[in-house]
């Protein structure tokens, strides 16, 4: 499968597993899992056909590891980024001392004032390294990488979780825990 098709399938699946499975007739369990055969059939009914094998390749090749497949290889879910109500059943984890968040300059003033909010998602997404955060910020323009004092947040009672693909999740980052560049 070429890269263009891989990307189209990945975006289609991510949109429906993260935001609106019901639009194509999918029923998700409380932890975000859907049956792979049902996903393939629902997509076909929606006019977007792909095979189970193509989906497996999308999961395997995705550099961001957006999806997980269960041990029996019968179910799939998005690892994070949901705007719908799901419990990913991730345990509280001890974060590294510092985590990073990529954004763009036009957002910095609001973040200085209000901190990092989940907005329409369940959690704020933080990266374990500057490079990843920079790449995330670059999707929307010239990236600005913020440093989050995750160790201090944890000591002050904030709970962190880490998704299967290494993205750190927290409900909110108050501004006093954020180091801004410059």
Q: So, CATH architecture of the largest domain? A: Alpha-Beta Barrel
Q: Could you describe the largest sheet, including whether it forms a barrel?
A: 4 strands, antiparallel
Per DSSP E runs of 2 or more residues, the count of β-strands stands at 12
Mean pLDDT: 93
Spans with pLDDT under 50 lasting ≥5 residues? Answer: none
CATH class identity of the largest domain: Alpha Beta
Fraction of helical residues: 25-40%
Q: What structural class do the secondary elements suggest?
A: alpha+beta
Give your account of this protein's structure:
The chain is α+β, with helices and mostly antiparallel strands. It has two domains: 3-78, Orthogonal Bundle (Arc Repressor Mutant, subunit A); 92-179, Alpha-Beta Barrel (ADP-ribosylation fold). Helices cover 34% and strands 21% of the residues. The protein has six helices and twelve strands. It has a four-stranded antiparallel β-sheet with strand order 4-9-10-7, with no helix packed on it. A three-stranded antiparallel β-sheet has the order 1-3-2. It has a three-stranded antiparallel β-sheet with strand order 5-8-12. It is globular. It starts with a helix and ends with a strand.
């Amino acid at each position: 499968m070429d890269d263009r098709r891989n990307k189209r399938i990945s975006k289609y699946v991510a949109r429906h597993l993260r935001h609106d499975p019901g639009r194509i007739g999918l029923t998700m369990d409380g932890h975000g899992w859907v049956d792979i055969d049902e996903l393939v059939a629902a997509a076909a009914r929606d006019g977007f056909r792909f095979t189970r094998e193509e989906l497996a390749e999308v999961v395997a090749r995705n550099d961001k590891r957006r999806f997980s497949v269960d041990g029996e290889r019968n179910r799939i879910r998005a690892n994070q980024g949901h705007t719908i109500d799901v419990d990913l059943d991730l345990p509280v984890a001890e974060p590294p001392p510092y985590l990073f968040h990529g954004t763009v300059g036009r957002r910095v003033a609001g973040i200085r004032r209000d901190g990092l909010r989940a907005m329409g998602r369940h959690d704020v997404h933080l990266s374990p390294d500057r490079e990843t955060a920079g790449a995330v910020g670059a999707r929307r323009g010239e990236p600005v990488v913020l440093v989050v004092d995750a160790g201090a947040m944890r000591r002050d009672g904030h709970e962190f979780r880490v998704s299967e693909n290494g993205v750190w999740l927290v409900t909110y980052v108050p501004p006093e825990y954020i180091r801004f560049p410059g």
